[in-house]
Amino acid sequence: MLTPSAPKERHLLGLLLVQHKKVVSLNNIIDELWSKKPSKSAVTAVQTYILNIRRKLASALDISGGRVRTEILQTHNRGYLFDTTHSRFDLTEFDRLTARGSTALDAGDHAKGVRLLTAAEQLWRGLPLLDVDQGPLLQAEVARIEQTRSNVRIKRVETQLHIGQFREVLAELSGLVVEHPFDEHLHGYYMIALQRAGRRQDALRVFHELRKNMTEELGIEPSAELQLLQRMVLDANDAAAVGPTANHPLLHQLCAAPRC
Question: Pick from 163, 189, 221: which residue ends a domain?
């Protein structure tokens, strides 16, 4: 297992891995590692870090240094490329499963889509690069990856609500609304799942708790869409009266996916 010990080596490796599909220029590396205030020896330092990472890769993979240079950590016109084409890399696997899951959903195979998106999400183990220093480039990449993860989760939850898996998402949504106390989409989905699972009072309690938090902490009311959902829950005569159907006016606003 490759675990560079020097903080800047870890920083550099993290940057190369999250941008593994493209060449990272030497100038961008220097800006990232030294916050645009590099020392005079910055170029030499980067070259040393690259050399050390290559040595550790060669040792960890039991291959020659020449193969590492030509096949994995390559030099390209005053920049470096970490090529993951021929290796198992969790980020590329996440992208692959996400793409397959989205294709299945577009084809109407909701069960398969949910399975693939769930498999993609299960690759995650906490926040990315949590123990690595982050400059502006790496922060932007981590934010992008996190947003992609969030989008996949939302698409999967929307689909599960669409196909009637209300009870299956209750526990997850219960944790997510605690983790994201002002996220109206997640609270809306949780309310729908609770209502359709026959827990009308709990659905209303979720709305009132969100409203209390938003007014006290942010000084604003929940959106008109979420207030509409609350009224629909109040007016519902049975559990089937609120749910993600094609002609549900609220979900046209709350859901990004057209299948909602």
Answer: 163
Asked if 73 and 82 touch (Cβ cutoff 8 Å), the reply is yes
Cα-based distances in Å from 224 to 108, 147, 221, 231, 254: 31, 25, 9, 11, 11
Residue linked to tokens 């398969």: 112
Task: Give 123-162 pLDDT, tens digit per residue.
Answer: 998 888 888 889 999 999 999 999 999 999 999 999 999 8
Structure tokens, 260: 């909602």
Structure tokens given for 99: 């793409």
Same domain, 117 and 195: no
Closest-CA residue to 123 (of 152, 93, 84):
93
Same structural domain, 186 and 154: no
Query: Which residue in this structure is represented by tokens 């559990």?
Result: 239
Question: Do 105 and 159 contact (CB within 8 A), yes or no?
Answer: yes
Q: Count CB-CB contacts under 10 A for residue 211.
A: 17
